[in-house]
Write a structure and sequence with these properties.
This protein is an alpha/beta fold. It contains 16 helices and eight strands. It starts with 8 loop residues before the first helix and ends with a helix. Pfam families: Abhydrolase_1 (PF00561).
């Protein structure tokens, strides 16, 4: 279940995301959290608290928990901070030391002048293939961990970092909206005829975009729904503020937009993270340029091209994606072979973004759909 640990909404989401279903009943994690939670006051204390316990868990060879804590420690660090790369590498190193859920094979898929890192989880006798990817800030290792909920399905599962994600980003590949490009590269590399896909968070949009233009995809899962990139910026922002910003953007008032964001980010850790992470992902250098980039990430106009079976998962209290987008998405998927929809509420659990705190509910729906 989703737990309210602190007064900061985004802190709560990230704590539930990192701890989630795996460790909620774990005595080790619960003991650690008793000390960690009171220390979480700002980005600096967040980093220091998670790092302290990452080191302790690594020393005691609790690599699974150490990896979770290193990922949390890395979360709010600025791209220019040398500790960010150190945390990322420690996160991956401890993850693979502690990952034993599947037999797997690792790949480097050629892409442009670099590669997409991928891991293939092997299911004996499986005849089908499922491609899984994250979104704005998730790493493929985080998605790999979630695949324990999918164990036993009649699919080999390929999890990868696309452009702007994880190691692909570290190697210089920036975030893009036309996700059919990396999907097609993965399909070609493995010489596949048909695949199903799952996109998490911002990946809910990326999955839709890929399905619109890559017809070797037969089933598409939006985990969660994600209509457009600007929704993540607008949600939790007063309408008056957002509308004023977009008027300036439409008028190409770049200096005013950048100055406005500089002031807002100084007092808003959530907004500061969104913008800073976005510029890291895309390579854009200002908030104005980032917003112009985000405008490309939209389902507007592509719905009619999606003719596959579609599963839409939505959280009623999602802090990044307004639930009001759901009927619009359903309406725009006018040519889908089928549309299956599940809305998670406080009563059912899973009401948060990507069902944080109750993630098995989402994966149960995926298994039924697939």
């Amino acid at each position: 279940m989703f737990k309210q640990y602190v007064n900061n909404e985004q802190f709560n989401l990230q704590i539930n995301r990192f701890i989630n279903d795996y460790y909620q009943e774990d005595d080790r994690a619960n003991a650690d959290l008793e000390t960690i939670i009171p220390r979480l006051n700002d980005a600096n204390s967040w980093y220091e608290a998670w790092l302290d316990f990452a080191k302790k868990r690594e020393e005691s060879k609790d690599y699974d928990l150490a990896s979770v804590y290193y990922q949390a420690a890395e979360f709010y660090l600025a791209p220019a901070d040398p500790n960010k790369e150190k945390m990322y590498q420690k996160y991956r190193e401890t993850f693979y030391k502690g990952f034993h859920d599947f037999d797997y094979e690792s790949y480097k898929i050629p892409y442009e002048d670099s590669y997409l890192p991928a891991v293939k989880l092997l299911t004996p006798g499986a005849k089908k293939t499922l491609l899984v990817f994250g979104g704005y800030d998730s790493y493929m290792e985080e998605m790999l961990k979630m695949m324990k909920f999918m164990k036993g399905i009649d699919y080999n599962i390929i999890v990868f970092d696309g452009p702007g994600q994880g190691t692909a980003l570290k190697n210089g590949l920036k975030f893009i909206h036309n996700w059919e490009k990396p999907i097609s590269s993965v399909i070609d590399y493995f010489k596949l005829d048909r695949v199903s896909i799952v996109g998490a968070s911002w990946g809910g949009y990326l999955a839709m975009r890929a399905a619109a233009f890559e017809k070797r995809i037969d089933k598409v899962v939006a985990f969660n729904i994600f209509y457009c990139g600007l929704d993540a910026l607008k949600n939790r922002m007063p309408d008056e503020t957002y509308n004023g910003i977009m008027q300036l953007v439409d008028g190409n008032e770049a200096d005013k937009v950048n100055s406005l964001f500089e002031n807002m980010m100084a007092n808003n850790i959530d907004l500061s993270w969104k913008i800073t992470k976005g510029m890291e992902n895309t390579g854009e250098s200002t908030p104005f340029d980032l917003i112009k980039n985000f405008e490309k990430h939209t389902m507007h106009g592509i719905g009619p091209f999606i003719n596959q079976d579609v599963l839409l998962l939505a959280g009623e209290d999602d802090q990044y994606v307004p639930i009001s987008r759901l009927p619009q998405i359903q309406q725009e998927l006018m040519n889908a072979a089928s549309i299956t929809t599940t809305v998670f509420t406080k009563e059912t659990g899973g009401e948060q973004h990507c069902q944080a705190g109750h993630r098995e509910l989402a994966f149960n729906e995926m298994k039924k759909f697939l």
